[in-house]
Amino acid sequence: MLAHQLELLAPARDADIGIEAVRHGADAVYIGGPSFGARANAGNAVADIARLADFAHVYHARVYATLNTILRDDELEAARRLAWQLYDAGVDALIVQDMGLLELDMPPMALHASTQTDIRTPEKARFLQDVGFSQLVLARELTLAQIAAIRAATTVPLEFFVHGALCVAYSGQCYISHAHTGRSANRGDCSQACRLPYRVTDLQGRVLVHDKHVLSLKDNDQSANLEALVDAGVRSFKIEGRYKDLGYVKNVTAHYRLLVDALLARRPELARASSGSCRFGFTPDPELNFNRGATDYFVRGRQQDIGAFDSPKNPGRPIGWVARVGPDHLDIDSEATLHNGDGLCYFDLRRNLVGLAINRAEALGAGRWRVWPKDALAELKHLRVGSEINRNRDMAWLRALERPSAERRIRVDMVLDDDQGGLRLRLRDEDGVFAEACAALDWQAPHDAERAAAALRDSLAKLGDTPFAAGDIELALSRPWFAPAGAVNRLRRAAVAALLDARRAAWRREPRAPARAARHPEDSLSYLGNVFNSRARDFYARHGVHLIAAAYESHEETGDVSLMITRHCVRYSLSLCPKQTRGVIGVHGTIKAEPLRLINGDEELTLRFDCKACEMHVVGRIQRNVLKQRAREMQVTPLRFYRTRP
User: Fold this and answer.
1) Mean pLDDT across 380-386
2) I want to staple 255 with a disulfide (CB 3.0 to 4.6 A). Which of 144, 284, 331, 492 is the partner?
3) C-alpha 630 chain-centroid distance
């Protein structure tokens, strides 16, 4: 990707969703292969990825494959072979976390540094650029100023998440799932402990919060910040969601396509990273997909209201109020149109989200609806007259997105001319790609030259379900022609097929960036370095790291350690941050950043606060049952990857 291009990067759970992402405006798509893709249940066959790449490359859009888990030594060869298979399938770049891959015989294709490489500083970013990464996926927690500082230290494109679910911990720095369940987030199998309810207590056991989802965040939405992100140095806008469904990808991709196109129209020094223009059969609206509310996180500094503490589920959009509760139905005052199958919800008196699905909806007139839920009303707690009702599933909307909902067309100009052998059609598309086709025809004089010319133009413009839209059509004929419609159609189809082949041939994959001599910004790495194999250890040693600890998944760290490191701060969200309360003296004296406890069932964690770095650490230890389980599964003793300083 060139430095002046803006890339809209969409997720793909599978190839068909990836194709729709491209059709709805994505300049690039990222997708998981059959293994090692950091999403355990979002794998795809290499043949399917090849099908996606073939479609995407027609639009000069890119396909990035995720190869971003940390790897054991016995997995390195399989990962290397997969990298070559993905290269042969036409993938444009690999998204990588494990530095051991850089020590292998990898294909000559671009490497992107995954967000799990934890890029937060200019020094780390410059190091990754120097060792051969062509694009850097920055940490979600960065501010505009921090992004600008990284931009000043680097020249490769910077990628930043602009939409979707937020991990509360720095990516690559979360071990709570592995500690409690043996399922490692760094190996694509997170158990999402951050979405659980917790009781928060102080060290004296006093309850500050009772059963709230205090580690669960709202969803990322940078819709209002795209231009500021561009000015800070971002060139790739990434949408989260490799587990998301087709409707989400269509809707959110189309939403950001419109925003990016508007930005490009204002900023002529910037260019689109792929070809074609989109036309949508719906009005994009991200609020209609699953979401936990919206936050722009830390882009413009620390915000008070970034948490989805009441529920990690989709609260939906307010649509009305309960007017009457009948024995088996509700009357709801709402200006919205309700449908059978819609999902409704409300917050009960304890601020718990309660859902109900509509079995049947009937309009009563004057903005009132009668709704028969699928479940018995007696099971719905605290539902009463005056309760505010939200809708979190709109069946009409979902059905609309199940149908074809977008066209993406590449402009092509046409010139039809003639010679003694017949007609020739020359095509040139918006990228300057050229193709032509000829038809051996005998000249026939038309009865009406003007009507014959109009018929030729009409036949040439019928591009149907091809990726192209007719631009200028020039009839550069030496004399008026009558040509049978069937012959002109065959000529057009032959020229279009030649142009498709020419576009595929014109596509050039970015090569692997050259590596330069570079020294790692740190001379020692703790378990936070995620070194899980000997080749990763060799990589860091070769770049000046003298003390290298094993990854947490190697089970060297069995005591209390930071299982999460996060910029989200529970004390701040509860208005108990010492900076917020400076000078305030309460019943128990001046508020200090003392540790707190998180309790969920039998699990107890400690929250420690690093006020200098403005970070929170969730501290705990690996469970014994996990150690026993992993020992049985691996049937080997994990290697100790330590080097001592010479």
Assistant:
1) 90
2) 284
3) 31
